[in-house]
């Protein structure tokens, strides 16, 4: 089992916190699997499109799939992460 840690993912444009994510392994945040998102400012169950900042409407991540699970593929340079 890989070690996990929590990340606060925020908008790179306006710095608004958007998602609390459980990251596994080391390295940059490339994708966020829906199963590992702990908390979100956006209702992801009702929201079927890309992940957008609720404050400034910047597209932060594109919706897709990974291993047959819903995931959000981050747009490079549009998010900030902070380890908690």
How would you portray this structure in words?
Helix content is 0%, strand content 52%. The chain is an all-beta fold and 84 residues long. The strands form two sheets. Strands 4-2-1-8 form a four-stranded antiparallel β-sheet, with no helix packed on it. It is globular and about 35 Å long. The protein starts with a strand and ends with a strand.
Key descriptive features of the protein:
4-stranded antiparallel β-sheet; mainly beta; 8 strands; 84 residues
Model regions low in confidence, pLDDT < 50 over at least 5 residues: none
Mean pLDDT: 90
Strand order of the largest sheet: 4-2-1-8
Rg (C-alpha, Å): 12 Å
Structure classification: mainly beta
Q: Could you give the order of the helices and strands?
A: EEEEEEEE
Largest sheet: 4 strands, antiparallel
Strand content: over 45%
In short:
It is built from no helices and eight strands. The protein has strands at residues 4-11, 17-24, 31-33, 37-40, 51-52, 59-66, 69-74, 79-83. The strands form two sheets. It has a four-stranded antiparallel beta sheet with strand order 4-2-1-8, with no helix packed on it. Strands 3-7-6-5 form a four-stranded antiparallel beta sheet, with no helix packed on it.
């Amino acid at each position: 089992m890989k070690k996990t840690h929590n990340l606060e993912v925020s908008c790179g444009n306006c710095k608004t916190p958007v998602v609390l994510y459980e990251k596994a392994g080391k390295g940059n945040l490339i994708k966020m699997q829906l199963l590992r998102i702990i908390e979100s400012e956006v209702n992801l169950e009702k929201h079927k499109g890309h992940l957008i900042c609720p404050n400034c409407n910047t597209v932060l991540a594109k919706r897709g799939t990974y291993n047959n699970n819903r995931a959000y593929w981050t747009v490079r340079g549009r998010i900030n992460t902070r380890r908690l």
